[in-house]
Automatic annotation (TrEMBL):
Keyword Hydrolase attached: yes
Annotated GO biological process: proteolysis
GO molecular function: cysteine-type peptidase activity
Protein name: NlpC/P60 family protein
Keywords of the record: Hydrolase, Protease, Thiol protease
NlpC/P60 domain: residues covered: 1-121
UniProt keyword Transport, yes or no: no
InterPro entries from the UniProt entry: NLP_P60_dom, Papain-like_cys_pep_sf, Peptidase_C40
Family of the protein in this entry: Belongs to the peptidase C40 family.
């Protein structure tokens, strides 16, 4: 928690992280699953898509960003952010000054920018 956010972080250490690096390390160290070193779209390609209503703790949740809103809602290019579903409409992720943190997905920005969800763990 609180590890500083850095867009395009190196992925070689955990002193700073961007969203997809956080997810990469969490799955690698927590479950022994290698999601590769790519970004949020690359991680989306490795999940089994599920509906938002079927979310379980540990699923990945994907969001649009200001830069990706220009793409159509059904396009993978709309994805610009990823986090881990923590239950109770909370996402564990990293962005901005707060670093790794929890955010509420049930209203506001996170609700309106939700794009997709997927399951890594079987």
């Amino acid at each position: 928690m609180g590890t500083p956010y850095q867009y395009g972080s190196s992925r070689s250490d955990k002193s700073t992280m961007d969203c997809s690096e956080f997810v990469m390390w969490a799955f690698k160290e927590g479950a022994g699953i290698d999601l590769g070193r790519g970004g949020a779209r690359s991680e989306y390609k490795k999940v089994t898509p599920i509906s938002r209503n079927d979310l379980q703790v540990g699923d990945l949740v994907f969001f649009s960003t200001r830069a990706t809103m220009k793409y159509s809602p059904g396009s993978i290019n709309r994805i610009g952010h990823v986090g881990i579903y923590a239950g109770n409409n909370k996402v564990l992720h990293t962005y901005g000054k707060g670093g790794v943190t929890y955010s509420n997905m049930s209203s506001g920005w996170w609700d309106t920018h939700f794009v997709a969800a997927g399951r890594v763990l079987k």
